[in-house]
Each structure stands twice: as structure tokens, then as C-alpha cells.
Amino acid sequence: MKTIANNSLKGAKNIGTTILKRLNEIGIYSLADLADITPVKAYKKICEQNPGETFPVCYYLYSLEGALLELHWDDLPEDLKKDLRKQIR
Prior knowledge:
Blueprint lengths: L16 H9 L5 H7 L1 H11 L11 H9 L8 H10 L2
Helix pairs in contact: 3-4
């Protein structure tokens, strides 16, 4: 993984106000926090904390991974996307 040059979630790739709010609700305030917990665990926690709501994999899980890799979520390699999807089952 790349070194996280800017540790702030604010302004990080793929992290808008909605995702930022959801991350803060589960105790994630920096990219280092996200890296420590992993995007998969963060996604699962967001889903668990908000039962009955739908959180699209592409918009949440891929966005979290992309934030750490400094890539737009849609630019993640297909094999990585497939691996991420397998991990949330």
C-alpha cells in the first residue's frame, strides 16, 4: 500500500461528506484509522450500525479502499474488487 501522505479523511479521494460522517460514527477520523481497521471491517461496521439501510458496495467499500490507494473507486482493478466483495460475505 502507498504511504498515506495526507492523513486527513477530509479531501481524501472518494470521501465525501456522507462517507466522512459514517466513518466518524464508527470512530474513524483519519486515513491511518481506516488503514488500521481495513476498508472491509469499516464497511461491515457501517452496515451493522445502520440496520435496514443499504450501502452500495461500489460507493462505500470500493471508495474506502480507493481512498487508501489514492484511486477513484471505479479505477480499482477488477481482481481487487472481486476480492473485496468476497471478504464481506
